[in-house]
Amino acid sequence: MVNTVLEISGLNKWFGPVHALKNIQFSLERGEVCALLGDNGAGKSTLIKLISGVEAVDQGHMTINGQAVDIKHYGVKSARQLGIETVYQSGSLGEQQSVWRNLFLGRHLRNKLGFIDQKAERQQATALLSKLDFRGVGANIETPVNLLSGGERQGLAIGRAMLFDAKVVILDEPTTALSLGEVDKVLHFIETLREQDRACLLITHNMNDAFRVADRFVVMDRGQIVAQHHKSDMTQEALHKALLDAVGRGA
């Protein structure tokens, strides 16, 4: 079994004359939660778009689950086939559709005749929500998504990634604008990813959230990785100071 599920070397990205990402060296291990930290404009969003296939890589090498990626033909479809799933702030959910339909949105199970296998989808949806410990209205697979809380919506989007056997789950600011109780739900879902031996790349501005769930912290500034720290090596206060120092050196 390959322990390094994502490895990037010499990755560069330009937008016209702007050198957006500069010689990125990065890896992610199975069962690891890595927090990607940095100010707005540091390059975090660009990096996750390249990993998830939304943006094209201009230069560099990427290996996923031990398989070298052809960057010239790498896109969202191939990223998903290799086990990369991305959950954005919006969750990309159908508001009027039920929980179970959202789980299979765009990737429905089909029977031998080619029709959507609703029975199989409902069964898998029920089993997944039980594993994620959904409660209340969110535990009913027939509930429309617009009735779910913010934390439940994020949990549903994370669950969809788990359902399609994601090896790497990228979370883009999953706790933004949520109440403390809802934040706790989302962080619990992230901890569930680790327990299932999946890798998670977490983009967040919230240091409390990052320190609770992450095993490693990678700091970006002006398109470069400027520092890396392991949780076992520091306190939350030390991490905050290290983040300020790293970004300050690049100012």
Automatic annotation (TrEMBL):
<feature type="domain" description="ABC transporter">
    <location>
        <begin position="6"/>
        <end position="247"/>
    </location>
</feature>
<dbReference type="Pfam" id="PF00005">
    <property type="entry name" value="ABC_tran"/>
</dbReference>
<dbReference type="InterPro" id="IPR003593">
    <property type="entry name" value="AAA+_ATPase"/>
</dbReference>
<dbReference type="InterPro" id="IPR027417">
    <property type="entry name" value="P-loop_NTPase"/>
</dbReference>
<dbReference type="InterPro" id="IPR050107">
    <property type="entry name" value="ABC_carbohydrate_import_ATPase"/>
</dbReference>
<keyword id="KW-0547">Nucleotide-binding</keyword>
<dbReference type="GO" id="GO:0016887">
    <property type="term" value="F:ATP hydrolysis activity"/>
</dbReference>
<keyword id="KW-0067">ATP-binding</keyword>
<dbReference type="InterPro" id="IPR003439">
    <property type="entry name" value="ABC_transporter-like_ATP-bd"/>
</dbReference>
<protein>
    <submittedName>
        <fullName>Sugar ABC transporter ATP-binding protein</fullName>
    </submittedName>
</protein>
<dbReference type="GO" id="GO:0005524">
    <property type="term" value="F:ATP binding"/>
</dbReference>
